[in-house]
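Lay summary. Proteins are chains of building blocks that fold into shapes, and those shapes determine what they do. In this project we predict the shape from the chain. Here is one chain we studied, written as its sequence of building blocks.
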Amino acid sequence: MKKCIYFTFVLLIIQSHISYAVNVVFRTSFSLQKDKPVCEIDLLIGRKLKFVDPALEKISLKYKVQAVLKKNDTIVGFDQFFLEPPKNDWYTDIIHKFRLNGDYGLMQMELLITEYSNQVTTDTIARSLFYRKINGPQLSDIQLTGVLIEDAKKQVKLAPNPLLLMTTKVQDLYVYIESYHTDELQDDFYFLKYNLELANTGERKLVQWVRKTKENEDAILQKFSIAGLDQGAYKMTIQLLNSSKELIQEKSILFQRESNMTKQNKIKKFREYVELNGDIDPLWEQKLDSVHCREVLKAIAVVSAQEHNQQINQLLQRKKVKDQKQFVIAYFTKINNEKPAIPYQQLMQKAHWADSVFKGGFGHGFESDRGRIFMKYGIPNDLISVDDDPSAPPYEIWKFEQLHTGENNAKFLFYSPNLTSSDFVLLHSNVRYELQNPRWERELYKNAPDEYEGDHYIDATRMKRNWNRQARALFEQ
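And here is the predicted shape, written in a compact code that computers can read:
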């Protein structure tokens, strides 16, 4: 069944921080509705180029929007509506999402924007569109937003983003796509592979695999942390693959990440840059108060050798800030005698990122199992997320091509025994000095206790194969 994910079709008013050469920007995307093509339009009507004093304006500013979609001079889609900003708010942009019925083949879209108060046409835009008919499994176009709202009925609303602009204030990227006719696939499941890379260089920033149960129509919403992404142009690619990981279709979308900083934030950002690339910030040691010292010590404990852990535990128990601060400074000075602020900043940036992504009910995010593995080994090359296995709780498989320790093909399996999105614990790994649990498959599928391989319940470590029990196959691939 298609999950309850909806777009906001109501007006969204946002402050503009960009100068426009024209007043209107719109972006189109393709989807299906009852096997009929639909054109989705994200529309932005920019602020007035000429300022009008609202005290002198007698009539509320209002725009009339007319949208027509034609094929061979025949109208296949039409809509007409009015948009206006809140009263006494003359300097905002209006953003709106709407849909038009479409068709396959070459079409022409015409968009007419009229300032209704004086019947002056602001913009007329024409654009050619082409939708190719595909038989079998396929994907819609990708929708991106940095704003997500969940109402009282647990329905998710995604704000339109016609500019595909994510400012540095945006910490999370929500990626929405629909799949169609995957029930025609031979096996009962398929994969979506997400790849985020720099548009200019192709440098990979993120890879994640998601395993899905086949359906006639499905809506998939994924959340990715982009807190650590610098400014620049990025490309998000989603691949639809069958159970053998053979490519069926691929969709891509570009977005821009830009700064939206106040003067104070620019100064702060410059200071962070200096700490990482040159002169030491003379204030970094002064930040080590009682609260921050404990945070830094816990972060060090996650990544440091076992020899430090006993000393760190004693420092945390004694609660003497002077001793804690002395240890922290000595630790980073040993790593970089001339510029200890550099390793300090690098460690805490990773810790804060882990906090934002893996934050659970207790402790810091970097103290969770997933946070700890990230702090030690970095971002995995592949991440497989499964939440539709009827016999197992949600689980994730992380795969690293090579660790800094020299180990190759490293794998970790986390699962959520309490069925919560934030409480994932490490169940098994093939890495030295990490948890290696021969009975991991039995524990993962404990809801099917009698379906094990072998003659003895106590000695058995593996589960019988069935159509949807794929954890071992995914782990061993």
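What the prediction tells us: The first strand starts at residue 5 and ends at 7.
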